[in-house]
Amino acid sequence: MRLQFILAEIASGLRRNLSMVVSVILVTFVSLTFVGAAGMLQLQINQMKGYWYDKVQVAIFLCSDGSTAAGCATGPVTAEQQENLRNVLESPAVAQYVNDFQFESKDDAYKHFKEQFSNSPIVDSVTPDQLPASFRINMKDPEKYQIISETFSSQAGVETVIDQRQLLERLFSVMNAASSWP
């Protein structure tokens, strides 16, 4: 008999407060949806990090005619300086950190630029002389970027050394902040 009384009171309370019951259910549903979406986004971000970190490169941009960097005070990179950089990349001290590397001439850089920005009007205003030649390095361990940076930043003919992982770090930190936003 008591069970029947309790169930009757629950039913009566739910009927009187139907709008409150519906609102609690909706709020709970929306809250759990956001928690689930944030969790799935965090998993996707971690998966993207694992995928992209293996593909990032370190780029050593060489001095060109218009370079204003301190290492370019003597002018554009010479063939001798370029060969010296290649020898340093192949030396045992640096080779232990490098999977492979390739040289990208100004013309190659221009071809890649045209492919990458084929639908942009900026393609028509850029010439091969405006793009620097570079060495593209695939690292064994991308975390060891500093060793390459320190080795090549002070070399003659080097304008700058850029780690693409730093660009990805900014992107992933924004995405992490978005997934943990209240």
Outline the secondary-structure elements:
Layout: H1 2-16, H2 18-53, E1 57-62, H3 79-90, H4 92-95, E2 98-104, H5 106-116, E3 134-139, H6 145-153, E4 158-163, H7 164-179
Antiparallel strand pairs: 1-3, 1-4, 2-3
Helix pairs in contact: 2-7
Describe the structure.
- By secondary structure, the protein is an alpha+beta fold.
- It folds into 2 domains: about 1-50; about 55-175, Alpha-Beta Plaits.
- Helix content is about 55%, strand content about 15%.
- The chain is built from 7 helices and 4 strands.
- The protein has helices spanning about 1-15, 20-55, 80-90, 90-95, 105-115, 145-155, 165-180; strands at about 55-60, 100-105, 135-140, 160-165.
- It has a 4-stranded antiparallel sheet.
- The mean pLDDT is about 85.
Helix percentage range? 55-70%
> How far is it from the N-terminal to the C-terminal residue, by CA?
47 Å
Number of helices: 7
Which fold name fills CATH's third level, the topology of the largest domain? Alpha-Beta Plaits
Please provide the ordered H/E string of secondary-structure elements: HHEHHEHEHEH
How many E strands? Answer: 4
CA gyration radius, whole angstroms: 29 Å
CATH level 1 class label of the largest domain:
Alpha Beta
What is the domain tally?
Answer: 2
Low-pLDDT regions: none
Order of adjacent strands in the largest pleated sheet: 2-3-1-4
Task: Give the strand content.
Answer: 5-15%
Question: Which word captures the global form?
Answer: elongated
Computed structural class: alpha+beta
Major beta sheet, specifics?
A: 4 strands, antiparallel
Second-tier CATH architecture of the largest domain: 2-Layer Sandwich
